[in-house]
Amino acid sequence: MTLNHFGAGFTSLAARTPIPFQQQTDAVAQWMNLPASDVQNAFWTIAVGSLCAACCALVGCFLLLRRMSLLGDALSHSVLAGIAGVYLVTGNVEPVPMLIGALIAGITTAVLTQFVHKSAAVPEDASIGIVFTSMFAFGVVVVSQAEHVHLDLDCVLFGDLAFAGVDLSPNFGWLLPDSFRSLIPALLVTLTFLAVFWKELRLTSFDPTLAVTLGFSAGMMHYLLTTVVAVVTVSAMQVVGLLVVAMLIVPAAVARLLTDRLSTMLWLACTIGVVSTTGGYLLAVRWDSSAAGLMAVVAGLLLVTAIIVSPKNGLLGRAYRSAKLRVRICAEDVLAGLFRRQERSKSPTEFANASFAECHAMAGNGLLAGAAVRWLRGRRLLKQDGSLLSLTDRGATYAQSLVRSHRLWESYLQEKFDLPADHLHDPAETMEHFIGPDMQQKITKELAAPAKDPHGRAIPGTHREADGVAGE
Fold first, then answer.
1. Which chain regions cross the lipid bilayer (predicted)?
2. Could you give the dihedral angle defined by the CA atoms of residues 219, 224, 230 and 235, in that order, rounded to the nearest 10 degrees?
C-alpha cells in the first residue's frame, strides 16, 4: 500500500486542517515534488508510530530490567480474549467497548500470571505461557463462532497504522488521527507513573529485596507496572497489532546495550523507537509493504548493529578487550621468562637477554607474539641491543612482581588446599596475571610472609608497581 492510495481521502481533510499546518505541509510537498496529501499522510503516520514507539519504549525498559519482557507478548495475545468477551456479553463491536474489554483482559492476564506463579509454584515464564495461551485460545474459539459479525482479525493482529493519516477527526481541539485518542492518554499515564514512582521503580527493579527491607512494596509496584504495561499494550495494538511486542522489547534492548544509566536508557529507547518508526515507514512506502512490519525489521537491524558495535557489550568491543588482554598476558609471559632466565644466569647483577625468536617463544609463538613484544618495547619494559632484547629497570620491577604473584599463589594453593607440587604451576601461571599488589599483601599476610615457594625457590619481595604500567 503506497502513499498515493490515500490522496483522495486527504483532499477533503486538508481543507479542515489548521491553516498554519496546511501551509507548512504545502511548502514541504512543493520542495519534495509530492502531492500535499501524501506528505500529510506520511507526517501523521510517522507521528502516530513514533508516539506508539515512545509509549512502548518507556515501559519496555522496566520490563527488560525486571526480566519480564515476555509479559508484553502475553498481554498482546490476551487482547483477543477481551475483544471476544465484550462481543459475547454485549454483542457490541464499537471501538470504545472493545478497548475496555482488551484492557480488562490485559490486566487479568497480568494478575493471573502472578497468581499461578505464586500459588502453584510454577516458574514465572511458564505461568505467563500458561495464561496467555489459554486466553488467546478462548478468544479464537469465540471469534470463530461469531460468523455473522465481522471482527477484522487483520486489524487485531497487524494494526491499522497504514490508515493513521487518513482517519482524522477533532481530538483535543485539533484535527488529529483517531489513534491519538488512546495513545496520548496512554503516554500521559506512563509519564505520570514514572514521575510519581521513579524512586520506587528504580529500587524495586534493581534490588527488590532492599526495597522490601526499606519498607517499599515490591508487589504493589509490580502490579502497578503491569497495569501501565497493559494500558500501553492495548493502546499500541490498535496501531501496530501484535508487533507491539517488538516495540516493547527491541528499543529497550538496544538502549541497554548502549548505556548502563537508567535515565539515559529511557531517552535512548524512545529515540530508537522513533528512528525505527520513521525508517520503517519510509521503507514501507518505498517497497509497498507493511509499515508496522518494517518498523519492527528496522528495530531488529538496530539491535543487530548494537550487538556488534556496542562499546561495552558489543561483539567488536569484547573482541578488542579480549585481544588486548591476550596481548598483555603474552607480554607478561615474556617478562616472567626473562626474569627467570636472569635468576638462573651466572651474572645475577646483569639483566639476561634473549633474541626476538626466543621472546616470541616465551609469548607462545602465536599471532599475538609480535604484538606482545611491541607492547613491551612501547612501554619501555624491554630494550633492544642489536638483535637481543633485555629487561629495563621498569621491566625488571614489573617482571619481579609477576614472579612474586606466581610463587605466592603456589604457596597459597599448597597450604590451603593441600595440592601436590606438580599441580601448582598451571593455575599459578594463569593467576599471576590477575594478582595485584593488594592481593599480594593479603596472601602474604595470610601465609605469614613465606620466603620460598613449594618448589624451594625464593619469592621476590617487591610489588608490581612499574610506574603505573600494571593493568594497562
1. 42-65, 70-90, 96-116, 128-146, 180-198, 210-233, 239-258, 265-284, 290-309
2. -170
User: What angle is formed at CA 335 by the lines to CA 331 and CA 336, rounded to 5 degrees?
Assistant: 115
Grid cell at residue 321: 578487550
Superfamily of domain 3-313: ABC transporter involved in vitamin B12 uptake, BtuC (1.10.3470.10)
Mean pLDDT is lowest, of 4-8, 65-69, 382-386, for 4-8
Per-residue pLDDT at 468? 44
C-alpha cell at 325: 588482554
Residue 385's beta-bridge partner residues? 388
Q: Higher-confidence residue: 11 or 110?
A: 110
pLDDT (tens digit per residue) in 313-336: 899 999 999 999 999 999 999 999
Helices (H) then strands (E): counts for the chain: 20, 5
Q: Which three-class secondary structure state does DSSP give residue 342?
A: helix
- CATH number for domain 318-468, candidates 1.10.10.10, 1.10.3720.10, 1.20.120.530, 3.40.50.300: 1.10.10.10
d(CA 376, CA 363): 11
pTM here? 0.77
Distance CA 390, CA 469 (A): 17
Same topology for domains 3-313 and 318-468, yes or no? Answer: no
Nearest C-alpha neighbor of 80 from the set 184, 183, 155:
155
